[in-house]
Amino acid sequence: MPRPRRDSEILPARERMENAFWELLADREYHKITVTDVVHEAGVNRNSFYYHYSGLPELADSAIMHVVHEARPMLPEPGSDPDATWRETMTTLLRSPEHRERLDRLALIAGPHGSPELVDSLRDFGRLTIINGLQLPDRLDLKTDLMLDFTIGGMLAVISRWPQLRDTVTVNDLLNEDVAMLAMSMVLSLSRKDLLEYWHRIFRNNLPSDDVAAAPAPQL
After folding, report:
1. Are 85 and 79 in contact (CB under 8 A)?
2. How far apart are CA 118 and CA 121, in angstroms?
3. Which residue intervals define the domain HTH tetR-type in the entry (predicted)?
4. Which of 42, 68, 126, 137 could pair with 16 as two cysteines, CB 3.0-4.6 Å apart?
5. Same domain, residue pair 37 and 112
6. Residue 119 is assigned to a structural domain of this protein
7. pLDDT block averages, 10 residues each, the chain of length 220
8. Rounded distance between C-alpha atoms, residue 134 and residue 96, angstroms
């Protein structure tokens, strides 16, 4: 008999099943999770499960897609300060319990309970989220495509290390100038914004004041 759930009278069945998926993945390897496990954990019947999903892989895809969508980073608005956007995003990321829970869930995908199929799903949804967020064209040029792969690979690496980082990393670590410059330059490069102007401003702001007037623009 399924255990009583506090969300059973509040959340829709679909959301309860996705929550059940994450709870089960935290407890056991993906290939050991069954539809029976999900319906028992979620407090629904099998008819409800198959009304929403064709099988466990579709449930996994849906659960990953929703977490990736909710965890998507804030992107700079036209004319805004990319550094301020990075600061606000990182502060929210580490201080919001909801965002930390999303990172905990995504880390399960890259952890010992995950699978290559789940990692591929996370990679695909992460890639799609960035493409949509930056309004990139359907057909990417080679430079943008490679930069996107590089960005997604870095995100997956950080997610896989999140269990070790979650209790030690601080907001100040992520506001480190080198980290912020790298992250924002990738975003600006992908979005085809004026990367030269951004680097020129960073370059000038980090020079000693006596040298600023004489500093040439960086050659990119």
Report:
1. no
2. 5
3. 11-71
4. 42
5. no
6. yes
7. 50 94 97 97 96 97 94 63 70 82 93 95 91 83 85 86 87 67 57 50 47 44
8. 24
